[in-house]
Fold this sequence. Notes:
This protein is of the alpha/beta class. Helices cover 39% and strands 18% of the residues.
Amino acid sequence: MSMTKSTHAYKRVLLKLSGEALMGDLDFGINPDVVNQVAINVKEVIDAGVEVALVVGGGNIFRGISLAAEGMDRATGDYMGMLATVINSLSLQEGLEKVGLDVRGMSALDMPKIAESYVRRRALRHLEKGRVVIFAAGTGSPFFTTDTAASLRGIEINADAVIKATKVDGIYSADPVKDPSATKYEKLTYDEVLIKKLNVMDATSIALCRDEKMPVVVFDINKEHALMRVIRGENEGTIVR
């Protein structure tokens, strides 16, 4: 049953997906089941009247910083990583369209045959018309992560929150997969995330959100209806504010 907008904690959100989240149980590439699950989650909130934009990483295909460590120029590696995000964005666009959503891909790097060039006012217009907007190619500049791109785009489109979809149900004191004693945080401040070096998002992206008072929510994309619970402001995942 559709909810009215008045019941939502957030009416416009920037959803950040890591490339690793798209892998699912695979060692590499894109898991179609994960793409479908993301599409179902996004459709649920779009049908409830929420405006959604997405930023996706590229780590499942390419990680520029790892090649930089092996001698490749960092800027070159980062541009290659941006192209990897475009591949993921095209996959997400296809998955979202399959569940009946109207989608627009916008790229920070000009590639008009496959995506619109990013223009802030055009992105806002798409959102107002109920379209899902996928921001590809990060910020378009090397040395900035897709987490930073998510914070930047979230601020630019006047989102109510940046929502980071991961494989775990929030922020923990340590990696819960490697450390069973890790404890989950329900709420954190931006400075606590930075001081504790929790690595949920890089320092630049957290600092951007802190300066603009942009809430950050971290949740498990694989949990059914989890995104909708975040949108409603229910106790789902971890909130940083």
